Each structure stands twice: as C-alpha cells, then as structure tokens.
Amino acid sequence: MREIQVDLGRIQTNYRTLKQLAQPAKVMAVVKANAYGHGMHVVAQALEEIGVDALGVADLNEAIELRSAGIKTRIMCWLLQPSDDFQLAKDLEIELGVSSFEVLTKVLEVGVHHLHVKVDTGLGRNGFVQADWERLFSALAGKSISLFSHLANTSEEADLKQQAEFEAALEVASVHGVEVTERHLAATAGTLSYPAMRYEMVRVGIGVYGLNPDEREFATFGLRPAMRVVARVANFKRVEAGQGVSYGYRYVTQRPTNLILVPFGYAEGMPRIAQGAKVLVAGKSFEISGRIAMDQFVVDVGDLEVSIGDEVVIFGDTENGEPTAEELGASYGSINYEVVTRIGGRAQRVYKK
C-alpha cells in the first residue's frame, strides 16, 4: 500500500562519483538520521561493501548501533554529552568529534584512539569559538588530532571567510605543537564547489543520496536520487461539481470529475500544510486536492480512469518525469533534507541494487 523504494546501487554509484570528484581526499559518507531516511544499517552495509572511507553519524547511540550491526568501517560521531559512555566508544573504536571542554576532559581521561576537534568558524553551532583556541590547543599540546568545522553555505564570500578562520585555527594548533593529521571542512555543497576545501577528507551526506544541497545546477555532477516513494490507490469515485474535498473544503470540484484516495498522510511524513504539491498518476501529473490528512490525501484526476491498486508516485527522479523531493519540500516552504528524513510512518522500505 505504501513503499519507500531505496536503490542501494544508486547510493553506491553516487558515492563512487563523489569519491572520484574529491580525490585524493577521503570521503566520509554521512548516515545519520537513519541515513537521511534511507535506512542507516542497510545503507552502511552497502557502502561498506564498496570500501567506503568512513561513516559519519550525529550521536554516539547511532555509532553504537552501527557497530552492533557488524559495521567495521571507521565511524565518527560529533554530537556528544559529558554523560556519554566514552569508554565504550573507545572499546568499539568509534571516533569522537569534540566541541566543548566538558566533553574534551572526559575524552582525554579515557584516551579515545582518534579525536576530532571541531572549531566554530562562523556557523554558530557546535565547536570551539576563537576565544577558546589558545586554551584548547594548549590542552592538546603534543597530541595528534583531526580538525574539522562546518560551512554555513550562506554565500561564496562567507564560505571563504570561514575557510580563512579554519586556516587560522590550524596555525594556532601548530604553534602549540598539536599535530593535525586530517582536516575536514566541506560537506556536499563545499565538496562540489570548492576544490581547495577538500583537504584530507570531506563529509558528504545529502549528495550520497543523490539530492541537491542547494540551488546549484546539480545534474551536471551525475548524482541521482536513490529514494522513490509510492502508494497504491485505495479508492476511486465519480463525483459531481460542488463536491468538497477533505477537511475544511479547501478544494471544491468545479465539474463532474474522478477522485482517487491515496493512503499516505502526515503520519508517513507527508506535510499537512503542503500547497500545490503534485503526484504522478498513470504517467500524468496532478496536484493534491484539499488538505492532507493523517492517513491519506485526495487527488482530482479529471476524467482519467484509475483502478484501485494503481501506483501513485509521491516523489522520485525528475529524469523519469516524476515529482521530486525538492518540489515536495518547496510546497510547504522546506527542503529535500526534511522531506526524506521525515518520511516513514507505516510505509515499508524496500531495497534493490
């Protein structure tokens, strides 16, 4: 009735494409948030099969899950609390990204095998601010670390300013005798835009799944969406003009027409506030009619004859004429990242290679 179709072969191809682009830099594939909705364990296994350089997740629990699932590749996580089990992280050879002195103290006490230190170069989220760099690198004197940060993707000018801040942090580290063996600043957008920001490693998330990180001409890089979301028609009826559709009658039919019921609602991550979102029915594009409900939405398909059980494409690949995650996101003022990570509910994930 509801499927999230994930093409693992396409994820592998996307990774290889990004690896070729970024060489000789290593490419960390980010699989946090259930691999952006694609299924963390299955995606991690598919990437490990092709020799992924490293995997990135947000928190320690995600990293532990991957180890428990048998993943042996390098794993890094970077959203940490002082109460986290850093001894377990060390035992499982999980690499830690540190952004606060409270966490740094505990991590140094345990002696994790690979420490990544994050500096805030202008995003204003996690990371040590410039005023703390002297204290930070004094505490790390004589040690070998990785250093990383994250771009705000505001403008080229702002990105280059952040790179300059990153270089300044490297200089302070050097003065204090800290050996930086690995630098990583660029995520997908930075990797595609700035060869000079690739350093020894890049962290690529949304690009692995074939989705555009911003407004660039993305198709030129040869990355293709790996997720296709479909549902099967649950009801079909002929109605007269003046028929109100769904809660609040935001849509009223203007003529005799056919309505179909699609069993995919906001419980599956379909945004209730979407306006103008389109789906594909029998190869034709139709706008969703009226308000999206918890379990379902309605589409006015005009005089098109549709059978119960026919496929409705909610989003997929524009090269196949299908609506996209970007378009669905735009219908409610959001982005493709949110669309794919929130999708789920009762929908079944189906994998192919």
TrEMBL record:
<dbReference type="InterPro" id="IPR011079">
    <property type="entry name" value="Ala_racemase_C"/>
</dbReference>
<feature type="active site" description="Proton acceptor; specific for D-alanine">
    <location>
        <position position="32"/>
    </location>
</feature>
<dbReference type="InterPro" id="IPR029066">
    <property type="entry name" value="PLP-binding_barrel"/>
</dbReference>
<dbReference type="GO" id="GO:0008784">
    <property type="term" value="F:alanine racemase activity"/>
</dbReference>
<feature type="modified residue" description="N6-(pyridoxal phosphate)lysine">
    <location>
        <position position="32"/>
    </location>
</feature>
<protein>
    <recommendedName>
        <fullName>Alanine racemase</fullName>
        <ecNumber>5.1.1.1</ecNumber>
    </recommendedName>
</protein>
<dbReference type="InterPro" id="IPR009006">
    <property type="entry name" value="Ala_racemase/Decarboxylase_C"/>
</dbReference>
<dbReference type="InterPro" id="IPR001608">
    <property type="entry name" value="Ala_racemase_N"/>
</dbReference>
<feature type="domain" description="Alanine racemase C-terminal">
    <location>
        <begin position="226"/>
        <end position="352"/>
    </location>
</feature>
<dbReference type="GO" id="GO:0030170">
    <property type="term" value="F:pyridoxal phosphate binding"/>
</dbReference>
<dbReference type="GO" id="GO:0005829">
    <property type="term" value="C:cytosol"/>
</dbReference>
<dbReference type="GO" id="GO:0030632">
    <property type="term" value="P:D-alanine biosynthetic process"/>
</dbReference>
<keyword id="KW-0663">Pyridoxal phosphate</keyword>
<dbReference type="Pfam" id="PF01168">
    <property type="entry name" value="Ala_racemase_N"/>
</dbReference>
<comment type="function">
    <text>Catalyzes the interconversion of L-alanine and D-alanine. May also act on other amino acids.</text>
</comment>
<comment type="pathway">
    <text>Amino-acid biosynthesis; D-alanine biosynthesis; D-alanine from L-alanine: step 1/1.</text>
</comment>
<feature type="binding site">
    <location>
        <position position="125"/>
    </location>
    <ligand>
        <name>substrate</name>
    </ligand>
</feature>
<feature type="binding site">
    <location>
        <position position="294"/>
    </location>
    <ligand>
        <name>substrate</name>
    </ligand>
</feature>
<comment type="similarity">
    <text>Belongs to the alanine racemase family.</text>
</comment>
<dbReference type="InterPro" id="IPR000821">
    <property type="entry name" value="Ala_racemase"/>
</dbReference>
<keyword id="KW-0413">Isomerase</keyword>
<dbReference type="Pfam" id="PF00842">
    <property type="entry name" value="Ala_racemase_C"/>
</dbReference>
<dbReference type="InterPro" id="IPR020622">
    <property type="entry name" value="Ala_racemase_pyridoxalP-BS"/>
</dbReference>
<dbReference type="GO" id="GO:0009252">
    <property type="term" value="P:peptidoglycan biosynthetic process"/>
</dbReference>
<feature type="active site" description="Proton acceptor; specific for L-alanine">
    <location>
        <position position="247"/>
    </location>
</feature>
